[in-house]
Automatic annotation (TrEMBL):
UniProt keyword list: Membrane, Transmembrane, Transmembrane helix
Organism phylogeny: Bacteria, Pseudomonadati, Pseudomonadota, Alphaproteobacteria, Hyphomicrobiales
Compartments, as annotated in UniProt: Membrane
This protein's GO CC annotations: membrane
Chain segments annotated as transmembrane: 12-32, 44-61, 67-86, 93-114
UniProt name for this protein: Tryptophan-rich sensory protein
Family of this protein: Belongs to the TspO/BZRP family.
Keyword GTP-binding attributed: no
Length: 117
């Protein structure tokens, strides 16, 4: 499979995702404690489900086109979480910004794979 020239080296992914998942978990906990039925919590669950789905679709099923649909939906869910959480949990929303940036970058990487293969 051909990869875009801006693909980071493999060693970047494990530490980056470790930090992101820790932050995602902390923010999910904050939302859960604050209001389990909030819109922010609903968007948190949507984004984590889509996040989980991307790897089996991209790597397992080897369907980069479908993985692109999943990652775009994940980006929308991450941005929706930030928008909904902004007024009630500004810290949580701000801490999701690096995750949004990485998800946007992952969207570009996935789109690059789709166009190159």
């Amino acid at each position: 499979m051909n990869k875009p020239s801006f693909t980071p080296p493999n060693w970047v992914f494990a530490p980056l995702w470790t930090v992101l998942y820790i932050v995602i978990a902390i923010i999910g906990w904050r939302c859960w404690v604050r209001d389990r039925s909030s819109n922010a919590m609903k968007w948190w669950f949507v984004q984590i489900a889509l996040n989980f789905l991307w790897s089996p679709v991209f790597f397992g099923a080897q369907q980069p086109g479908l993985a692109l649909v999943v990652v775009v939906a994940a980006l929308v869910a991450v941005l929706a979480f930030i928008a909904v959480a902004w007024n009630k949990d500004r810290l949580g929303a701000v801490l999701f910004l690096p995750y949004a940036a990485w998800t946007a970058f992952a969207t570009a990487l996935t789109a690059g794979v789709v166009t190159m293969n």
